[in-house]
Amino acid sequence: MTATQSAKQPAGKTVTSGKPMLAFRPLPVPQVDVRGFWGDRVDAVASRTADILYERCVAARMLEQIDPDRPSPGVVIPFHSPSPDEVSFTGNEFTGSTVTTQMFWDSDWGKTIETAAYSLYRRRNDALEARIDAVIDMYGKLQQPDGYLSSWYQRIQPGLRWTNLRDCHELYCAGHLIEGAVAYYQATGKRKLLDIMCRYVDHIADTFGPEPGKKKGYCGHEEIELALVKLARVTGQQKYMDLAKYFIDQRGQEPHYFDEEARARGADPKAYHFKTYEYNQSHRPVREQDKVVGHAVRAMYLFSGMADIATEYGDDTLRVALDRLWDDLTTKNLYITGGIGPSAHNEGFTADYDLPNETAYAETCASVGLVFWASRMLGMGPNARYADMMERALYNGSISGLSLDGSLFFYENPLESRGRHNRWKWHRCPCCPPNIGRMVASIGSYFYGLSDDALAVHLYGDSTARFEIKGLQVELVQTSNYPWDGAVSIRVEPQAPVEFTLHLRVPSWCRKAALRVNGAAVDLQSVTSDGYAAIQREWQRGDRVELELDMSIARLFANPEVRQDIGRVALARGPLIYCVEATDNAGQLHRITLPRTAGIEAHAEPNLLGGVVTLSAVGTKEAAENWDSGLYRTDPPAVEETKLTAVPYFAWDNREPGEMLVWLRDG
Ligand code: FUB
Ligand code: ZN
Prior knowledge:
Layout: H1 3-8, E1 25-26, E2 32-34, H2 36-59, H3 62-66, E3 89-90, E4 93-94, H4 105-122, H5 126-142, H6 151-156, H7 170-188, H8 192-207, H9 224-235, H10 238-250, H11 257-264, H12 296-313, H13 316-332, H14 364-377, H15 384-398, E5 416-417, H16 432-441, E6 448-450, E7 454-457, E8 463-469, E9 472-480, E10 487-494, E11 498-505, E12 513-517, E13 520-522, H17 524-527, E14 528-529, E15 532-539, E16 543-549, E17 553-556, E18 568-573, E19 576-581, H18 582-585, E20 592-594, E21 601-605, E22 612-622, E23 639-648, E24 660-661, E25 664-666
Parallel strand pairs: 7-11, 20-25
Antiparallel strand pairs: 1-6, 2-8, 3-4, 5-24, 6-7, 8-9, 9-10, 10-16, 11-15, 12-13, 12-16, 14-15, 17-18, 18-19, 18-25, 19-23, 19-24, 20-22, 21-22, 22-23
This protein binds beta-L-arabinofuranose (FUB) and zinc ion (ZN).
């Protein structure tokens, strides 16, 4: 199958072993050309980030680790270090506060390959393609005759394979390389890495599974589950899908695999650094879980895999668990930006409503993971409960992780900064750059869901999509200045008249929406369910759908249980959350109050931050006055008027460094 052929299929070949639910598949990346807002982001990734990722991986010495023709670099990131946030590692056990990231460098290569693959759809880049081919050749040489492949265990810690699934990311790395392999095959038609990874997965399937003599394990960092689903879909191999299901079903079962594995290597299972298996969501079998706990990225990847398996196997028991977990996340544990995981300690969740702003960890990867999970929930049918959240995480807490020019990154995405949180070129744990890179470069595949007789429009934006339904080719052209403007015009161009249902999301942030088909108004209430308006008709060439989504500015308030946000207000317009930055507001942002009575205006600023809509209002501010160097006094501070300007949160820290604040004082 060539790249072009695979692009013609909705999402690869479907394999199921149960009864699939109403399956809506995303359109493959090359079937959606994005322009406008997302076009700019994809161009930044395709023209800069994709190359930068490769170059910075090389600079970090990752190439030396995977190239069997060069001497091994040995341990580049030290196990023992005086710095408290360095890893400390004794034998095969972690005792430090973080783990060495070098053992998952294969995952960085996997995501870098994936980013490059999607970028090649956008823009030919022969030099990058040749570099990726060379990386793939190295992996080909490195692979052992039995199919095993891990640069860490082959080059740095030989002889220890499959001895510490809990901590050492072995299957996680396999997962990212699988995803890279699938994307690269689809983008270039080259199947070398795909074949390498199929051989490796065959070895994994011989090693793990319910059959006697096989290991009953699963990875301490979920990822391989969702990757195996992709591999099964593209190869049509049912056994890859079954292996994904096995890893999900087996997680958290007793006797606990991580206990037994620790004992087998002579370690005390209780000496686990993170103390509880909640950290990696193996504290209970997945169908019994009802709270989002532990490491946020791990949780998101697990839930994404569960959603895929729920869809593929028609497994309602998984869907019910996922809905419980979704409620828990979105009603008690989510930043308004779509960021998740407030704590640096476990890179994850703490207690309900614990959402500190300045110390928010809110890892870029975690928001990206939320996008993955939400998009997979949409596989079970259009539902704005998931799509609205996907949009929130997409436009805010995930893309905040990438500078506008595609060259600098955030790992943590706080909602308040005193000016010292700035974008960096690289990180000792560089998981986020290629994660945001691959997500942005593949954004087209999040726009739509296609079933046998329906197309769901999850995201709006200037773009053209091509798909096949009932054996006919259809082109769907969205003309819009979204997210700056809520007017969306959709032209449907079927090859010949064809009947199908077009589901259009009416976002929950929109308080007034209007819909017209070929100029005739449609009563939205009567056609909308689960937040999607359904238009069923025989579509003819040139049919036009117009959706008007009111983008009034909204003041958002947090549940008073969120102690950090009480008495505060955040600003939103459409899907975008706003923040104030020092550069527009002369600093001391903590002094600013936005009175309830203040009018807020939106201004299109084509020359600012690549073209944004800013919000402005007249607020108040404690004046700079002489306190006679005292700290406290009985007279309240003087208050003066101040003009306040807010910019979209995703665009912050793209100018001179300074303070930033999302939650303003509400007056
Ligand atoms: O452990 C692999 C990745 O590194 C995780 O997903 C991130 O949270 C970071 O710790
Ligand atoms: Zn990350």
